[in-house]
UniProtKB/TrEMBL annotation:
Protein name per its UniProtKB record: Citrate synthase
Phylogenetic lineage: Bacteria, Bacillati, Cyanobacteriota, Cyanophyceae, Oscillatoriophycideae
Coiled-coil region list: none
Keywords noted in UniProt: Transferase, Tricarboxylic acid cycle
Catalytic activity: oxaloacetate + acetyl-CoA + H2O = citrate + CoA + H(+)
Entry annotated with the keyword Ribosomal protein: no
Amino acid sequence: QPACEYKPGLEGVPVAQSSISYVDGKEGILKYRGINIEELATKSTFLETAFLLIWGRLPSKQELDDFQEDINNHRRIKYHIRDMMKCFPESGHPMDALQTSAAALGLFYSRRALDKEEYIRDAVVRILAKIPTMVAAFSQMRRGNDSVKPNDDLNYSANFLYMLTEKEPEPLEARIFDVCLMLHAEHTMNASTFSAMVTASTLTDPYAVVASAVGTLAGPLHGGANEEVLTMLEEIGSIENVRPYIEDCIENKKKIMGFGHRVYKVKDPRARILQQLAERLFELTGHDEYYDIALEVERVVAEKLGHKGIYANVDFYSGLVYRKLGIKPDLFTPMFAISRVAGWLAHWREQLAVNRIFRPTQIYVGQKDGVYVPIEERS
Ligand code: CMC
């Protein structure tokens, strides 16, 4: 007999004890290692936050400098991997390209010295360094261009935008992108993190862990809602059309993209920060008419569905920000992966310390007395 009741989707079933992140869905609080996301978003950087998530403490100045320098030194990808990526179909989805390239890293780098902290650090550095390069490379290659080499004078986020768009971003654009990476870096237990942990629990290498998490994130029920928010705003098209559009969705039980969350029953704290970032970005790059539509959507949804605890989630404003930064909609989920890899690696490292292979059970509901019928006697 199973030890507990079957819960589809493991809803409400704890699968780990973790000290990496904490969410209070009623108060709208998200903390990484005990530090409020708002504080990190104003004071930290993505790489410092990744260090915090993975090693459980803020780095010293020297540790952070060394970490950043190591990552800068590992941003290039091998010719073999670039050659392999050139053979990918240009119509392929960037998430599939990323999953394949992430798995390919495992072919090139030493495997499974998982008990050694140097190995863990080396893998963390390589993965954080190379994932953005691979995303940007595929984005260039699918348009028939060569990949753009990392620019050693630019920091992590500025360099990524440079490799993607071939122009150096304004400091504010790079900073805003860096904050977006911080906001998406970790979010307690979720499908891709769980997938990473199941893969990690077999003690396979970290490249396989990341590749399986990327594959999980790629599905429309997980990453990808921000792309759909943009499509929705375009469909709405004008402020006057917001109310009838939302009323129609509610009447026909159609989900409004970028709203609602399994955990948050108030506005997602990440949406609040992203909205402020969007406003700062539009001051620099010019007004965005879709932002006015988005504000009206938020007003009408709060009026109609606020009583059910349905408010804007992290995906509602991120698409508007990414688009202004010159990022194509089918790259929004890879942006999520570039960032969330920090959380996956944190859970990988946390789990290695207490590892037990995931081997749940099932309730058999099939037949128990089947007979083998020879093929010529089957109807
Ligand atoms: N628009 C309209 N109604 C909604 C929405 C929405 N976006 N979200 C939930 N509801 C209603 C739903 O119709 C249901 O109503 P009723 O009880 O009358 O049948 C009730 O709220 C509960 O909804 P649910 O789908 O059972 O809630 P859930 O916790 O299973 O789903 C969710 C959470 C995020 C999948 C869902 O809110 C949704 O599909 N939102 C739109 C897609 C989206 O924005 N996804 C990004 C999630 S945030 C990223 C992340 O953290 O991974």
